[in-house]
Specification:
Layout: E1 5-8, E2 13-16, E3 24-29, H1 40-58, E4 62-69, H2 74-83, H3 87-104, E5 112-115, H4 120-132, E6 136-139, E7 142-145, E8 183-187, E9 196-198, E10 201-205, H5 207-219, E11 223-229, H6 233-248, E12 253-259, E13 262-264, E14 267-268, H7 279-284, H8 289-298, E15 305-307, H9 309-331, H10 340-358, H11 363-383, H12 390-405, H13 412-418, H14 430-445, H15 449-461, E16 464-468, E17 474-478
Helix pairs in contact: 1-12, 2-3, 4-5, 4-6, 5-6, 8-9, 9-12, 10-11, 10-12, 14-15
The protein binds zinc ion (ZN).
Zinc ion (ZN) is lined by residues 30, 211, 236.
Length: 479
């Protein structure tokens, strides 16, 4: 087995992978908050995690990965209340869309995908442990973690704690990164909000406690790897460490891996700049899932990725190059025999591929090994020195690379069709669907049933199903 070295944010350096249970790697991944569709920046992080798990498996490790789904927070509670439905119902379609999205990008579904609202009891039990140790205080029905009682606070993000007033706190989910404050473990309900009646009082969990409770429930007190976007290191991951280690007295995570941001055409992605893309926005613009996957994985995860139209078009060509090469290997007749020089090229490429990934998942090095090999083998084929028995060996090499890359099988058309983006269908974005649903509601109110039916049909033609509920609201989903 080759030594795998990964950059541990906690230690600030490359470290050899050293799992708690030999041969098995337990990974926790912060998943989506399901109040809207995930954006392309989120998928950069999810593709990186997919490369990690696929590479570990290709090296003989068993992988157990747990991903949470945050299906309770301020935005969800407010949006669900505004829609007049419960939060489970409100989040369901976003969870379904997220699972379809990761599938479209050939991101393997983690072994466990777990919802926060299914684990309220685990969170309550963890908060009780912290209460028993005197690490919390209650104010206006909310329970806070007192960070001055946890000496290790700040060790992940290296945040400077000088000048922080003990007892200063915030009680919102969206933190200002400059503020280091006591954080809420449990939030008292505000009027009209959905809440849980529990042993520690009525309310709902804070965001951080969710990840501590669920990761330790499924993976044990000490995890091998915890991943997330770099923006989660503080305060989210810092708070996870504080809660978990204060409760168990053991190290919470051996290795913290953080993926850098993605920018779009050289600019920060933001709704106000109009460059905020969900995966389906890109599909609607005609981009293929495999090209998006290629672009997202082509830049090593700790480097900022500039996501551009030109990059997508190059990515599409790169994927085609790989697929065409395998097609050539399968179709062409070569002279009998095998060429030891060609074999050597393959062995070198396989070694360089693995060594590249073993060095902090350097996908740029791994891809260079693959494309150099494709170029050299094409040259030997053109020169007539590529021989019959080299072909199955070369196919096996390409398939081995593809266990990690997942680009060779052409599922693009099928995937797009499944999501309602078949070329013969009009393509609709989520905002357009919402607007049509609203227009249909208005038409029904005005007893214009013809128009209402027309809109239902238009949506059905685009692969969108409508469901009229008993309470008069309308839900939609992708067929
Ligand atoms: Zn998390």
């Amino acid at each position: 087995m080759i030594e795998i070295r990964l950059y541990n944010t906690l230690a600030n350096r490359l470290e050899p992978l050293d799992p708690v249970h030999p041969g098995e790697v337990r990974i926790y991944t912060c998943g989506p908050t399901v109040y809207a569709s995930a954006h392309i920046g989120n998928f950069r992080t999810f593709v990186f995690q997919d490369i990690l798990r696929r590479f570990l498996r290709s090296q003989g490790y068993r992988v157990i990965q747990v991903m949470n789904v945050t299906d309770v927070d301020d935005r969800i509670i407010h949006s669900a209340a505004a829609a007049g439905i419960g939060i489970r119902e409100y989040t369901e379609k976003y969870i379904q869309a997220f699972l379809e999205d990761i599938d479209a990008l050939r991101i393997e579904t983690p072994e466990e995908v777990v919802r926060a609202t299914d684990h309220i009891e685990d969170m309550v039990a963890l908060i009780e442990r912290l209460q028993q140790k005197g690490l919390t205080y209650t104010s206006d029905g909310s329970i806070y973690f007192r960070i001055s009682k946890f000496p290790g606070y700040g060790k992940l993000s290296k945040i400077d704690l000088t000048g922080i007033q003990p007892g200063a706190r915030v009680d919102v989910d969206q933190y200002d990164k400059e503020n280091v404050r006591d954080f809420a473990l449990w939030k008292a309900p505000k009027p009209g909000e959905q809440f849980w009646e529990t042993r520690i009082g009525p309310g709902r969990p804070g965001w951080h406690i969710e990840c501590s409770a669920m990761s330790m429930k499924y993976l044990g007190d000490t995890l091998d790897i915890h991943t997330g976007g770099v923006d989660l290191a503080f305060p989210h991951h810092e708070n996870e460490i504080a809660q978990s280690e204060a409760a168990t007295g053991k190290p919470f995570v051996r290795m913290w891996l953080h993926a850098e941001h993605l920018i779009i055409e050289g600019q920060k992605m933001s709704k106000s700049l109009g460059n905020f893309y969900t995966l389906r926005d890109l599909f609607a613009k005609g981009h293929k899932p495999s090209a998006i996957r290629f672009l997202l994985l082509s830049v090593p995860y700790r480097r900022q990725l500039n996501f551009t139209e030109e990059g997508l078009s190059q990515a599409r060509h790169s994927v085609e190059r790989l697929r065409n090469f395998v097609a050539r290997l399968k179709a062409e007749q070569f002279p009998p025999g095998s060429n030891p020089e060609v074999r050597k090229l393959m062995e070198t490429a396989e070694k360089d591929f693995d060594l590249g990934l073993a060095n902090d998942l350097n996908t740029a090095v791994a891809l260079a090994a693959v494309f150099d090999l494709v170029r050299d083998m094409n040259t030997t084929m053109d020169g007539g020195t590529f021989l019959q028995q080299d072909a199955p060996r070369a196919i096996a090499a390409m398939e081995k690379f593809d266990e990690v890359l997942a680009l060779l099988t052409d599922q693009d058309t099928e995937t797009l069709a499944k999501l309602g983006f078949a070329p013969d269908r009009p393509r609709l974005l989520a905002q357009e669907i919402e607007a049509l649903v609203e227009e249909r509601n208005a038409a029904k109110k005005n007893r214009d049933f013809r128009r209402a039916d027309e809109i239902r049909q238009k949506l059905a033609d685009s692969g969108i199903l409508l469901e009229d509920t008993k309470d008069g609201t309308v839900r939609w989903k992708y067929k």
